[in-house]
Amino acid sequence: MTDATLVAGVGVPDTKLAREATELVRDETSELIYHHSRRVYLFGALQGRRRDLAFDPELLYIGAMFHDLGLGRRFHDSGRRFEVDGAEAARRFLREHQVPEDGVRRVWTAIALHTTPGIPEFMEPEVALVTAGVEYDVLGIGYGDIAPADRAAVLALHPRPDFKRRILEAFTQGIRPKPETTFGNIKADVLEHYVPGFERGDFVRTVLDSPWPE
Q1: How confident is the model at residue 5 (pLDDT cuts 50, 70, 90)?
Q2: How far is CA 170 from CA 15, 67, 70, in A?
Q3: Most exposed among 146, 159, 167, 182, judged by the fewest C-beta atoms under 10 Å?
């Protein structure tokens, strides 16, 4: 067994750690999330190559594979943002495999911040590139940065049929049980569109209505 296989010139880790992460994600998530997570790794790595960033492929892979794990049913009652649930699951997984704490921290941060634009790009490459892969696959940010042939090679392995509608449905189902976790973040947009009666938190109203007397 080789340590990596190539897709669009990008090495996909084939280590014991990566294989076990893949197996866990396949067991706990849908085909939609599995293929999306693999694309996040590949598109993130391709953006890393374009930006000439030196990154640890194994850590980037774990971050990508776990980044949406927190949408799963077993986390619906956690009371925490799904990003934190995924980050915590990745931390437990990595510590069980004796990964050094600096690597654990990078993966945790990459997952926890992947829906917080404007910050990850200034952090370690693994953190920046999980977000870059998510932004590419979900939002199409930087769509022209990756060559059409490379994009096609990724989609040949991990297709995205009706992805826009299906990923929004997955977001809705994952965060609908804990709407309070959307305050101040982009997932409030999802519930506002798809959950009748949802009222998003208002930061200005929260400040003005705080118990401070002035």
Answers
A1: confident
A2: 29, 13, 11
A3: 159
Residue 77 to residue 21: CA distance in whole angstroms: 23
Query: Residue 3: pLDDT above 90?
Result: no
With CA atoms as reference, report the closest residue to 164 among 22, 36, 27, 18: 36
DSSP 120: G
The dihedrals phi and psi of 11, each to the nearest 5 degrees, come to: -80, 125
Instruction: Give me the chain's average pLDDT, please.
Output: 96
Q: Which residues contact 184 (CB under 8 A, 6 or more apart)?
A: 201, 203
Share of the chain above pLDDT 90, in %: 97
In 3D space, the residue among 117, 99, 114 whose CA is nearest the CA of residue 21 turns out to be 99
* Across 144-164, average pLDDT: 97
Entry field: residues in the chain: 214
Check if the beta carbon of residue 38 is closer than 8 Å to that of residue 65: yes
d(CA 79, CA 119): 24
DSSP 136: I
Query: What confidence score (pLDDT) does residue 214 get?
Result: 84
In this structure, how many other beta carbons lie within 10 angstroms of the beta carbon of residue 136?
24
Angle between helix 82-96 and 101-112 (nearest 10): 160
| pTM for the structure as a whole | 0.95
142-178: burial string, b at 16+ Cβ within 10 Å, e else: eeeebeeebbebbeeebeeeebeebbeebbbebbeeb
